């Protein structure tokens, strides 16, 4: 039966090596005892002690090798969780080439993703100008025709925005090392939204622990939370609350408002891809389907519930790096 465990193989090899050395040592001791019987009996105890010391030294060396391999695994886990961007450390010459190849692969993936995202961004921005020109020119048409064209242009613009967000998130999710502190994103968004909605006097209360971090790129977390908070600001009467909690390997971010809320029968509909929330229900805002798509690309989810404050409660779950 093939033994897959490296630890077991090393230990088994050490045992075989020890038995082989014992056989050689025993043969040599018998020969020496035949020619020097009195001297060898005097040094028997010293020989036993020496053999035990050699055995202990061998086991310690095997343990050291296994610890080095465990260190590589720990570093790889840190890269996957976003705590480090490369595998670092000092390793034996046999392991160092493997570490170098892994780091080269990580760098190559980052470069490929960066180029793909740049191409997606260039495509989206390249389409925006022609769409703007068409929108300007269609104003010269009769009102009914212009309204139809504007409606279709708006759908095209929203489709571009959605697919651009998907492309960026797909690339970001495929990149190892993504990590964002939730409180930093929330605080920055709150400062911006408080200025935009200053005339309404909405109070935004954040209770996000600074230690909570998610395995998501900062730009994508800003887009998800920005949609949720902007939606809450549009429909809240006076107060919005943002909080987060840890559950297993996830960070749960909750955005509550005291607005009119969404009817339970429409909560799932406003999250569907291609459904405009403002057309589905009053007070539900825009961009919820984009939030859901981005969350799913990162292995997360979003659900809507009734808020204790009387409005809507958006519950965003994302993979944790804690």
Summary keywords:
elongated; 3 domains; two-stranded antiparallel sheet; single chain; alpha+beta; 322 residues; Heat Shock Protein 90; 9 helices
Give an account of the 3D structure.
With 322 residues, this protein is of the alpha+beta class. It folds into 3 domains: 6-80; 98-174; 180-319, Histidine kinase-like ATPase, C-terminal domain (Heat Shock Protein 90). Helix content is 60%, strand content 12%. The chain contains 9 helices and 7 strands; from the N terminus they run αααααβαββαββααββ. The protein has helices at residues 6-35, 37-42, 44-80, 96-137, 143-174, 182-196, 218-235, 277-280, 288-297, and strands at 180-181, 203-207, 213-214, 239-247, 250-257, 301-306, 312-319. The strands form 2 sheets. Strands 2-4-5-7-6 form a 5-stranded mixed sheet, covered by helices on one side. Helix 5 (143-174) runs parallel beside helix 9 (288-297) and helix 6 (182-196) crosses helix 7 (218-235). It is elongated and about 120 Å long. The model is unreliable at 276-286 (pLDDT under 50).
Structural class: alpha+beta
Tell me the CATH topology of the largest domain.
Heat Shock Protein 90
| Strand runs, count | 7
**Number of helical runs?**
9
What is the H/E order? Answer: HHHHHEHEEHEEHHEE
| Mean pLDDT metric | 78
Described by strand count, sense and barrel closure, the largest sheet is: 5 strands, mixed
């Amino acid at each position: 039966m093939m033994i897959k465990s490296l630890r077991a193989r090393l230990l088994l090899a050490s045992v075989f090596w020890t038995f082989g050395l014992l056989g050689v040592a025993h043969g040599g001791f018998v020969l020496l005892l035949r020619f020097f019987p009195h001297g060898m009996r005097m040094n028997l105890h010293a020989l036993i002690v020496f053999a035990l010391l050699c055995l202990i030294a061998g086991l310690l060396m095997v343990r050291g090798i296994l610890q080095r391999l465990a260190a590589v695994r720990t570093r790889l886990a840190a890269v996957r969780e976003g705590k480090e961007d490369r595998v670092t450390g000092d390793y034996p010459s046999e392991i160092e080439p493997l570490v170098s190849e892994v780091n080269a692969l990580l760098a190559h993936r980052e470069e490929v993703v960066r180029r793909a995202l740049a191409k997606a961004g260039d495509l989206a921005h390249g389409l925006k100008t022609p769409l703007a020109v068409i929108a300007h020119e269609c104003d010269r048409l009769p009102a009914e025709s212009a309204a139809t064209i504007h409606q279709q242009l708006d759908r095209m613009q929203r489709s571009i925005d959605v697919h651009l967000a998907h492309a960026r998130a797909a690339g970001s999710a495929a990149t190892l090392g993504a990590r964002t502190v939730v409180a930093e994103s929330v605080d920055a968004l709150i400062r911006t939204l408080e200025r935009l909605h200053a005339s309404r006097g909405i109070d935004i209360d954040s209770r996000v622990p600074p230690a909570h971090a998610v395995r998501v790129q900062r730009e994508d977390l800003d887009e998800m939370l920005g949609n949720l908070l902007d939606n809450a600001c549009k429909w809240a009467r006076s107060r919005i609350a943002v909080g987060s909690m840890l559950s297993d390997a996830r960070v749960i971010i909750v955005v509550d408002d005291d607005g009119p809320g969404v009817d339970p029968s429409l909560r799932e509909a406003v999250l569907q891809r291609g459904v405009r929330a403002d057309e589905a229900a009053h007070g539900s805002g825009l961009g919820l389907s984009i939030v859901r798509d981005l969350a799913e690309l990162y292995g997360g989810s979003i659900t809507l519930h009734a808020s204790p404050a009387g409005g809507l409660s958006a519950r965003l779950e994302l993979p944790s790096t804690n």
